């Protein structure tokens, strides 16, 4: 792996870890960064999807107690079973629809204009929903309920459009159905584990013939860097989100999408 490939992997890992669990679209940031540093093409698409597993591992570390309780207690009646059922129901729409439209999603991952417009539209939606969302009535994941969990799952499907943000789509949908901010963030983070693991494994399997030792090394570097950065970001976000809300991220999305549209036009 040459110096440019190593630097690309490190930069991509930092951006993935920093943005995956914020409602600002990690995929959108990776696509735009790829344009700026010349890391584009089919191999880059596989790389961008694969290093998400590093961020997923960070969630496993942060929420290991919750995950252990689910593994031990979800088999019998109780709040842990409701928690697990809600995660499964929210995961199903992305699993079915994502596999069906995999090719179309891959094509959109190479279009930075799609990312810019999705960033701006998502930013406007976040600001509007934070301002006019219903009063929170759900304050823990087991309270979410099957219908609300499914609705959040269909919200997650919107994140197949690069620039939308998986965490943003799930959190905003959760706010709309009456989930309070911290619980919405926790649900989004835990839901990321099956969703991103399945998406990454599926993408690597589809691209298995194009992978070689060099690309696997680059993916490994990006994986480690994204894990370390995501670990810091997830812990920080869970400590401040109830206080700061999501509106600042909405304004950031609008600013980034607008600036990048100008950059792309100038290029």
Folded structure, characterized:
The model has no long low-confidence stretch (mean pLDDT 88). The protein has 13 helices and no strands. The longest helix is centred in the C-terminal third of the chain and has 32 residues, at 213-244. By secondary structure, it is mainly α.
Shape, per Cα inertia axes = globular
Mean pLDDT: 88
What is the total tally of β strands? 0
Range of strand content = under 5%
Q: What gap, in angstroms, lies between the N and C termini? A: 28 Å
Give the SSE order as H and E letters.
HHHHHHHHHHHHH
User: Which consecutive residue ranges, at least 5 long each, have pLDDT under 50?
Assistant: none
Helix and strand content put the structural class at mainly alpha
**Could you tell me the radius of gyration in angstroms?**
18 Å
Number of helices in the DSSP assignment: 13
Helicity, as a percent range = over 70%
Q: Features of this protein?
A:
267 residues, mainly alpha, globular
Task: Briefly summarize what is shown.
The chain contains 13 helices and no strands. It has helices at residues 3-19, 26-37, 42-50, 52-62, 64-73, 79-100, 102-108, 112-132, 146-157, 166-176, 181-206, 213-244, 247-266.
